[in-house]
Amino acid sequence: MDVRQIFSFFVLATFTCYGSAIQCHQCLFENITSTIRGQSGCMDPLESSEIELVECDGQCYANVTAVSNEFYDYNAVYRGCTTDSDIDCSFQGCQMYPGTRLCAYCCDKDDCNSRSFEEVDADIFKCYQCQAELTPDGMPVDNNTCGRDDFDGTGDPLSVFAFACPSETCITFTTPPSPPFPASITRSCAVEELLDVCTNNMNKEIFEMQGYGIECCQSDLCNVGESPVSSPVSPTELLTTPKPKPKPVSKRRKYWYLAPRRARKMRKN
User: Fold this and answer.
1) What separation in angstroms does the CA of 64 have from each of 44, 77, 99, 100?
2) What is the pLDDT of residue 220?
3) How many domains does the chain have?
4) Phi, psi dihedrals of residue 236, rounded to the nearest 5°
5) Is 49 in the same domain as 75?
6) How many CB atoms lie within 10 A of CB 92?
């Protein structure tokens, strides 16, 4: 490699390195019971003409927190670059709680954190996430909607959520009782071992042989409806099933080895 090739390689590498940076909007807006701080153009939807763009070697982000109760009203919007903050990009989309609304997203294109939160939330693959304990006959404890066969995503807003799912695979699985813990049903996003169960039929068979039930699906908010049927044999049944008694052994059979000695003794007499 001659000097010109080395120089060309260096220029290309330098251009690629600097070309990887993206442009992100950077701003904040806070409104705490009519006390305002920051730029109003940062709100949702963004007034991009009022907000500066900065170079970013990571990802662009945007998040909003809105809280309203009898004590105060709080609204805050932040947009910027992930390398300049400790933003966690694992949470994507919007989540509603009583009196609270949380939205967040990360993206990796120029000017991408100018999108409205509702628009981003509509594009994100989500799964329902909730859990319910089950009675011995398979009914949900306290009529928890998560454990009902007609579950449609509704229920207590503090216990039923719709979360982003990076694997784009939702699951519904049941666990058998394991004293002192009762049987349960969980609806969530498939990750790690459970995702492997969904994609490997052999693992699924082993999973079900151990008394678990699992159903996997690949469409948005698809983990609704009936729970999967788990194995009829549970650890509780194994503990309570009486073991068969051993058959009694007759004395004649038990001491069969004594017979030749007695016969010899009788012949001597």
Assistant:
1) 9, 4, 14, 11
2) 93
3) 2
4) -65, -45
5) yes
6) 20
